[in-house]
Amino acid sequence: MAESFDAVVVGCGIAGASTAFFLQAKGLKVLALERDKPAAGGTGLSAAIMRQHYSTPLMARLAHAAIRIFQSASELLGRDAGFRRAGYLFLVPPDALAAAQRNVAMQRELGIDTTLLDPAELAARMPWLNTDGVAGAAFEPDGGYTDPEVATEAFAVAFQEKGGELRTKTAARGLLRSGDRITGVLLDSGDVHANWVVNAAGPWAPPLAQSAGLAMQMRTVREQDSVWEARPGRPLPGHSISNAVDAIYLRPLGDRRFIVGRGFPKEYVDVDPYNYKRTADDAFVADVQQRMVLRFPTLDGARLVNAYAALYDVTLDWYQYVGPRAGVDGYADFCGGSGHGFKEAPAIARELADWLVEGKVRADFRQFSYDRVAANNLFVLSYGGNRG
Questions:
Q1: How far is residue 369's CA from residue 31's CA, in Å, rounded to a whole number?
Q2: Which domains, and CATH codes, for the chain?
Q3: pTM score, two decimals?
Q4: pLDDT per position as a tens digit, 123-178
């Protein structure tokens, strides 16, 4: 006899784990499926920089809400979620200063604590920074970073403590469909029926959707990162930093170590999520090192500790696909993080749970639905760090 649940969430990265938690918190009977272990995909290798600097009110308010969720994890989840309030800095080139000023004003209207610092203030406060070519910087004291594995595990454990069921090493082989309704998922052990199936499978979301004849226009690209250890006795950055001047980002790891990667603009290479090169390219490492030392001279002579590649699931407009679709019942997307999905995931999950269970959805959030593709109602990118 087939099993039955109110909701099945496929994928247990930060998107799936937080969605499962918020659905279970509403009193549903929820099953979460993970083909490996929580955070085994792109989530676990995310730089997990926490920032609220976005150019659209939707993304800014979601990032603001997510930081508050991470800050209150001990009360909400019963445990720490790995968030560290280290501050966040967004370095701005001259041609983007006016846009950054508009973004900061919008963010402040949303209640975000952010300030635009001029080069003189940067030089005085941050002796480790080369300010040549920097027109200013947005600074958020509430930003910082999160341990992505700790955060995902915190949501997964809290979900189970509320009565949810998590099955690891369990792949969803396909969606079950009857007419215009998704009725569950196919496992190796048999059919599982559900009132809702949430596709939070990240780069593996398209084949799952397509198993039931649902379109999913999304790329899977390879994203490289490096880890460096600074020499002792030097002043070091304590903040997470997006450097739009040199197109790199930096995130502290502690013990004089930093994650450093390339920011937009850069080349994005499509790959097979089941078979891709997991080590970083030598050319990438050399390029990142050059950019890093130019902007942060205090990291000259830093030792390379690790260099690796993960995956980005990238949508047509770099905004996530979230929510139900017209013409098919019982199904919702939550995928397409596009390199910035980690930081908003819990806030998106909470609003998605409201949408699915109570039918409550804000107008700006509704545009996340995959329906925007057919309607040609894609989000419009503007400068301000929407990618990464």
A1: 23
A2: 3-45+149-216+317-374 (3.50.50.60), 85-144+220-315 (3.30.9.10)
A3: 0.96
A4: 999 999 999 999 999 999 999 999 999 999 999 999 999 999 999 999 999 999 99
Closest by alpha carbon to 243, among 230, 260, 231, 229?
A: 260
pLDDT, tens digit (0-9, with 9 covering 90-100), for 243-296:
999 999 999 999 999 999 999 889 999 999 999 999 999 999 999 999 999 999
Q: Which residue has the tokens 């059919």?
A: 191
The pairing of beta strand 174-178 with beta strand 115-117: unpaired
Secondary structure of the chain as H, E, C letters: CCEEEEEEEECCCHHHHHHHHHHHHCCCCEEEECCCCCCCCCHHHCCCEECCCCCCHHHHHHHHHHHHHHHCHHHHCCCCCCEECCCEEEEECHHHHHHHHHHHHHHHHCCCCCEEECHHHHHHHCCCCCCCCCCEEEEECCCEEECHHHHHHHHHHHHHHCCCEEECCCCCCEEEEECCEEEEEEECCEEEEEEEEEECCHHHHHHHHHCCCCCCCEEEEEEEEEEEECCCCCCCCCCEEEECCCCEEEEEEECCEEEEEECCCCCCCECECCECCCECCHHHHHHHHHHHHHHCHHHCCCEEEEEEEEEEEEECCCCCEEEEECCEEEEEEEECCCCCHHHHHHHHHHHHHHHHHHCCCCHHHHCCCCHHHHCCCCCCCCCCCCCC
